[in-house]
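Sample entry (209 residues):
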Amino acid sequence: MAPHPAPLIPPLAPPPAKGVANRQRIVEAALHLFMERGYAETSIGDVAEHAGLLKGNLSYYFKTKAEMLESVSEARMQELFGRLQQRLPADPTPLQALEAFVQVTQDSAHELARVGCPVGTLASQLGKTDPSLQPYASRILQALADWLGAQFARALPPDAAQAHAEHLLTLLQGAAVMAHAFRDPTLVDRQAQAARQWLRSVLPPPAAA
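Predicted structure, serialized as tokens:
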């Protein structure tokens, strides 16, 4: 049976019940502003204003902007793996699991064309402005690479599995960059189809029943 993606993701510590909605608003506002203005150019006050909260109230949930970034990273990771979990069939083969990942990317084609990939964009921004914070964004890409590698490793030798995982992730991240640059979601669609064809060429067919 294929490993589920959820165990790869440490669950967020549950906030106080009364603060769930506010915390979610803050995280969503922070992600929006980090993408729109950049992490370095976004202040805690900006996030509070965008979330419709007083700056003093925001500090109840997050003491620093770095804490906010960590929660943005965690929330985005859980969202991505949640989408993947919904796409996985019961007891998926390696090919089915990997094609589900491709489909999750394709499902976001219009979003990627409009705003780009939040994960890749944040990792790039932080690498230029504050490398000490880059792991908060790059850890999502690493988690995806690890999950992809685990699926390939069910059918291929370890070295090949890692190389193929890196290739697939790079292919789809590149499609996201190009789709955003040209504001064209069909670029994601075309690369997703190319990814499926490639997967079927490198993975062995399922054994006959």
